[in-house]
Write a structure and sequence with these properties.
The protein is mainly beta. The strands form five sheets. Strands 3, 4, 5, 6, 7, 10, 11, 12, 13, 14 and 15 form an eleven-stranded antiparallel sheet that branches. The chain has a five-stranded antiparallel sheet with strand order 1-25-18-22-21. Strands 2-17-23-19-20 form a five-stranded antiparallel sheet. A hairpin with a 5-residue loop joins strand 19 and strand 20. It is elongated.
Length: 444
Amino acid sequence: MSILLQSDFNVHKLSFNRAILAVIFALSLASCNKEPDLIGIDLLPDSDYLNLSFTDTSTIIAYTVREDSLRTDELSANLLGYMNDPVFGNVLASIYTQYRLPVNNVSFGENPVADSIILTLKYSGVYGDSLSQHTVRVFELADSINVDSAYYSHNTVPVIPQQIGEATFVPNLKEADSVDGAYVAPHLRITLTQEFAEKIMSAGEETLSSNAYFLEVFKGLHITVDPFTTTSTGSILSFDLVDDLSRITIHYHNDTDTTSIRLPINSSCARFNNYDHFNYSGADPELLQQLAGDTTAGNNRIFLQAMAGTKIKLRIPYLKNIPATANIAVNEALLILTNDDPESSLAPPAQIAIRSLNSSGSYVVLPDETIGSAYFGGKYINNSEYRFRLTRYVQDRMRYPDAEDHGLMMVIAGSSLSANRAVIKGPASSSNRMKLVIYYTLVE
């Protein structure tokens, strides 16, 4: 246990000469960018530099827990794919979505015959091995979904067993595609069955009169992919379902014309993602140990995964003991987190977040974050680490030692609609350990 006693302050207290040098150094940087560790220290009166000290030995308890199910309905992007992660195991992302009539009172004319029916989905990104091959399958929903309802990452909807579409492909997000003689943004094209086209075209007049009736019969689609049987890494693809290019297009002819109709997926459509982590089968043993409830197993490494995967519980239990032997003012408190594998082909999240927990387990915004995101931190920097300023949080823990403390939770920002993951060095790692660096001033 790393409780700070008076001796800790004496060991870490800067000597007079070092303090003088710090003053000179700070003054020399008055017109330059300041070292992030020392922001705020240059605001001290000169006399306080003599009492300036720091510590980075505060005990941190950190371990990985499963993420609670996250809301995934009506997001700005939808994920689809399968990935075999060497650390986190397998994960599959699938999509449930409605599609709609473009107008009321649709008519296909006399004796309509479908020539083709295509589902197109506009790409917006890829995570993982962009050269991995996927097989995607499409099914009709057997139950309705509603745009006004909440759907979560664990939710599923029954489907009609007969498959209505399939495509095997390697994603191409770089080259524009030609559709009806015009070049459009890269997208996935899935040919649907003739039977499905005929089902739509032969629907009764009432069914085609409005979306209220149409959605009672055509409840939506489940779009999923096959798990790999190889050791391929795979990828998770991101799609913009509300783009005009995301739609079902039926090309058909009748007694008088050859034409087409587009059934859009748009902002009026209910849509959500399901994420399956297969109970972390094949995941890293250290991760499995923590998920099984071992709170000491995070000493070396801890694990963050989006798509309702994992998050990190943090506790800094002895902050309230620091002022027990001295009155201090916290000038800066930095939580530093280092990526355990910065060279991995699986990129870490660009932003992570930290919240405090209340007695019910709900998230509470930390006082430091209210100052602004640029001050608070959490972005991935220097291709190696994340930093958070917890100055107010630390000072409050010292000032109100009897206040309830239910710990902190670290999550990936935008976890519902991203696929990133990260392995972070734990508080007892042999190098670049997780640490809380506190710069403080002794107060007489």
